[in-house]
Specification:
By secondary structure, this protein is α+β, with helices and mostly antiparallel strands. It contains 15 helices and 18 strands. Strand 1 and strand 2 form a beta hairpin. The longest helix has 23 residues.
Length: 497
Amino acid sequence: MSENPADISHDQHAVRRQKLAELRAAGHDPFRASFSPTHFSGDALKLHVDGQDNAAGVAVAGRLVTIRDMGKSQFVKILDQQGQIQVYLKKDVVGDEAYAAFKKLDLGDFIGARGTLFKTKTGEVTVRAEAVTLVAKALRPLPEKWHGLSDPEQVYRQRYLDLIVNPESRARLLMRPKIVSHIRRFLEDRQFLEVETPVLQNVAGGAAAKPFTTHHNALGADFFLRISLELYLKRLLVGGFDRVFEIGRNFRNEGVSRKHNPEFTMLEVYQAYGDYRGMMALVRDLLQSLVRDVIRPADGSMKIKHAASGHEIDFGGEWREVAYQDLIRTATEDPDWFARSKAEKIAGAEKRGLSVDPKWEEFEITNEIFSKLIEPTLIQPTFVTHLPKELCPLAKLNADNPAVLDVFELVIGGMEIAPAYSEQNDPDVQRAMFEAQAGDDQQSIDQDFLLALEHGMPPAGGMGVGIDRLCILLTGAESIRDVILFPQLRPGSGGAA
């Protein structure tokens, strides 16, 4: 009969508590205030030069994740931000007392080691320790080596354990800050200014979404957590900041799914004197640079594996451009779809297995066909252009067909990655479009933004990129929860009792 892992964990917790008491009774500090490593593990490994053992002295620190007891010597591995490095501890070198103290340490404890680098007979660069220090005692054991975190929800609730024991998850979540850092450098090299705009806003504008509300006691007023970055960034265009971007959190009080989290990160970019086609070139260059310089496919290509479909996505190939209306006509096999009555469109959608609310507007029925039947099939990079005017009140109407907008949605891997517009800068047209969208809820219109537009805003291209979805795409993650360090979950137990 196998033992209950919870009982084992409880027993180990008690043993570690006893070790903690013994350390304190002996006058040792089990939780040091500091340690001064000279190198991260990866940087230390690069210092070794073949044929020059002991050439480099280093101090490294990290969590004990492997211990091999050889009697009078120990091979251990520690984990830090850059990965693992092996440490060799010999009783004759560190002394009897220090060696005996080290043998009482547990997996999960943090140690610091000082010594020189050498290469073992198996070819592994290792620190030959001259001194080892307990930096912080771990009072609870790590998950069992071969089974890891057996509860999928525990991966998200106790992400710190996931980062320790799951190398794939760790690598994916370390890739995210590299992606964000590259985006910043890419835009700054093109003279875009990074700015910060308010999270607490009087009007939840810039998108059609249900906001979270809060109350400011000192001001005696209700505020919304922003649902979009857009309207404040465009105020900066009015103020003379010609190229701006922000990477920030948005909050929407809506559902959760594989692609949705209540709080999510957006990049929004605005460039004066440009349009949606300028944004096409910008996002293509950005994504290609991310694949080439950050993801770096092993075969040297611009192709990455799409986890959900198993297909390869070629970022270096031709990026398709296709009109929204053409996609709808093809999917419905009806060249006259947009001339059909609402009843005919409902029947057409239901014929294709879609559930349609009779209260929906005609454009909503059509967009359900796009989102459910078309978008998931667009695996290779595709610019879907000229969407219906009802879908976005903030974009310019097309000069040749005012029923559609000068916009695109970039779809890759079956997900919308980046919408972009030629921004509406006519205050009268903007007001009319806001009013049409708001209907009876005229208080939802951002009057201060309209006032800003009346002072004059240059023509501009604007774009949003969902950072979470971009990370799903580039890292091969299955879900948005896998690329967010601490995704939103139902309230529940956060750890062991």
